[in-house]
Specification:
With 163 residues, the protein is mostly helical. The chain contains eight helices and no strands. It comes from Vitis vinifera (Grape).
Length: 163
């Protein structure tokens, strides 16, 4: 793979800053898949080859090791230093991404609660355009949907019409 292609893939990954965990994880998954680096995230750590190992076993270990090393470098490089410092270190990509997930599990729940409360209590102010109000409400619904909290269209229409 040429350097321009690699740079293109990596520039598509938003730096993990906290509120964008789900998007970051999705982007990382796409980049690893396109660069054929997701092997270490799909397969458990293989046994280190010995002198008696077959060429196939050695090749699989090398593939896993390269995938693991590159995945860790890309993940750690795409996380802000403040957040990276709060995540326990690991030399295994699968373990590291789980540690990152654990770090943001509570954060996404509190953000979802905040969005729900804001959406339920939001009222049209009479000054800005109605379209802008609808777009704000739709934006909150989209954010909640990204956190696996889908809001039905009928529910949204109810809040837009009667608030």
């Amino acid at each position: 793979m040429n350097p321009t292609t690699i740079t293109g893939y990596l520039s598509g990954v938003e730096q993990l800053s906290g509120a964008n965990f789900k998007k970051w994880k999705e982007q990382i998954g796409i980049v690893f898949g396109c660069m054929d680096l997701d092997y270490a995230l799909r397969e458990p750590t293989p046994t280190k080859p010995t002198f008696e190992s077959t060429n196939e076993q050695k090749a699989l270990y090398e593939k896993w090791e390269r995938s693991n090393r590159m995945s860790l470098m890309i993940m750690k490089g795409s996380i802000t230093p403040a957040i990276r410092g709060a995540i326990p270190d690991s030399d295994n990509a699968m373990t590291y991404i789980k540690l990152v997930e654990e770090q943001f599990l509570g954060t996404s729940k509190s953000l979802a609660s905040t969005l729900m409360i804001k959406m339920i209590t939001m009222k049209y102010d009479g000054h800005s355009g109605v379209c802008e109000h609808i777009m704000k409400m739709s934006g909150m619904v989209s954010q909640l949907k990204g956190m696996d909290m889908a809001i039905s269209e009928g529910f949204l229409v109810h809040f837009i019409n009667f608030r």
